[in-house]
């Protein structure tokens, strides 16, 4: 399988990627903890089968100090002891919001209330936006056959800053 288009080498694609990254930068200003953001992006990418994004977000999280144990257990977070209640609430929201087609009600009131117990409105806006953006990124990367395995931490930041 070969990549179909390299967004960063395409004029319009590069502009779109930079705008999407700019939204991510705004999410960082919401107060949603960076570790939670990394877990959310990794979990949505796992659900969507996006090797490129799994590679990127696991490596970025590790570079920011995330442990291998926690990264290895993200897919099985419900059956592990290494995530805080706050992180579990964010992961539950991530799964329900990512699997909209699988869950007729979308994000349940129970899941929303659980997240609202730990996150203020700015953080909830950040969480919902982050989930939406990583799902869009996953869909783009999978459609364009962007492959995982060769990502180096900091590459995305360098690409959009360049």
TrEMBL record:
Record organism: Kribbella soli
Molecular function terms from GO: peroxiredoxin activity
Name the UniProt record assigns to this protein: Carboxymuconolactone decarboxylase family protein
Phylogenetic lineage: Bacteria, Bacillati, Actinomycetota, Actinomycetes, Propionibacteriales
Domain Carboxymuconolactone decarboxylase-like: 16-96
Pfam family, one: CMD
Superkingdom in the source lineage: Bacteria
């Amino acid at each position: 399988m070969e990549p179909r288009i390299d967004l960063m080498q395409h004029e319009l694609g590069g502009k779109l990627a930079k705008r999407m990254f700019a939204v991510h930068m705004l999410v960082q200003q919401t107060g949603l903890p960076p570790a939670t953001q990394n877990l959310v992006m990794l979990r949505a990418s796992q659900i969507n089968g996006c090797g490129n994004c799994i590679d990127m977000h696991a490596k970025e999280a590790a570079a920011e100090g995330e442990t291998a144990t926690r990264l290895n257990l993200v897919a099985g977070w419900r059956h592990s002891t290494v995530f805080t209640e706050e992180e579990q609430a964010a992961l539950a929201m991530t799964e329900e919001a990512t699997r909209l087609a699988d869950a007729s009600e979308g994000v349940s009131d129970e899941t929303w209330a659980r997240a609202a117990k730990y996150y203020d409105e700015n953080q909830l806006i950040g969480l919902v936006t982050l989930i939406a953006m990583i799902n869009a990124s996953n869909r783009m990367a999978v459609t364009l056959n962007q492959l995982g395995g060769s990502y180096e931490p900091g590459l995305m930041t360098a690409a959009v800053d360049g």
